[in-house]
């Protein structure tokens, strides 16, 4: 049985880790390099580092910060934000990232998923999907969840998987930062339909939420930010709880 992964997310703005509700009302959550090392030492399975305003501000992720974070940890590390070309990926993998995450770039140029998978291997390519329900239908959003598209979330997830994505990072914008639980229904739909791993993101508020997204949501990994950044849940305690609940967790 594959172990379920716990993944802290470092949302970066102007070189600092931030956290808000529904990607707005941001507050400072600390130095990303320090946080990355703490999570690595505490037993996080992976980290995700997202420069959340890189696409909005039309700039590239800071490779220098990626290098510092990568040097501080010994676990796999995904980087996203402002990545749109094969050359961008080369720079970030060269700076120390294990995987890259693309969102807006894939929506506007789906072929880039094929190109990146062909160049670097599917295992390096994570496609992030920010989804929001509009009149009961789940649609993909870009630019940190600010800009709606006409792409239906489930259909888009299948397309990027077919194009060579190695993993889906599914964030429910309706749940993000609310601490009311993950979007288990759509997570389950996508996880059941695809053969690649799905990382659930958005809504973690307590330990049972993680159990629910792994069982009802059928997620392969669960990502969270503020509950880890502000010490509301410790990673060792969370892993112990999930293990007691019968889930396969990496110690």
UniProtKB/TrEMBL annotation:
It holds the Pfam family His_biosynth. GO terms for biological process: L-histidine biosynthetic process. It is found in: Cytoplasm. SUPFAM superfamilies: Ribulose-phoshate binding barrel (SSF51366). CDD domains: HisF. GO terms for cellular component: cytoplasm. It comes from the Bacteria. Pathway: Amino-acid biosynthesis; L-histidine biosynthesis; L-histidine from 5-phospho-alpha-D-ribose 1-diphosphate: step 5/9. InterPro entries: Aldolase_TIM, His_biosynth, HisF, IGPS_HisA/HisF, RibuloseP-bd_barrel. GO terms for molecular function: imidazoleglycerol-phosphate synthase activity; lyase activity. Its EC number is 4.3.2.10. Its main location: cytoplasm. The active site is at 11, 130. It catalyses: 5-[(5-phospho-1-deoxy-D-ribulos-1-ylimino)methylamino]-1-(5-phospho-beta-D-ribosyl)imidazole-4-carboxamide + L-glutamine = D-erythro-1-(imidazol-4-yl)glycerol 3-phosphate + 5-amino-1-(5-phospho-beta-D-ribosyl)imidazole-4-carboxamide + L-glutamate + H(+). Keywords: Amino-acid biosynthesis, Cytoplasm, Histidine biosynthesis, Lyase. Belongs to the HisA/HisF family. Heterodimer of HisH and HisF. IGPS catalyzes the conversion of PRFAR and glutamine to IGP, AICAR and glutamate. The HisF subunit catalyzes the cyclization activity that produces IGP and AICAR from PRFAR using the ammonia provided by the HisH subunit. PANTHER family: IMIDAZOLE GLYCEROL PHOSPHATE SYNTHASE HISHF, IMIDAZOLE GLYCEROL PHOSPHATE SYNTHASE SUBUNIT HISF/H IGP SYNTHASE SUBUNIT HISF/H. This is Imidazole glycerol phosphate synthase subunit HisF. The gene is hisF.
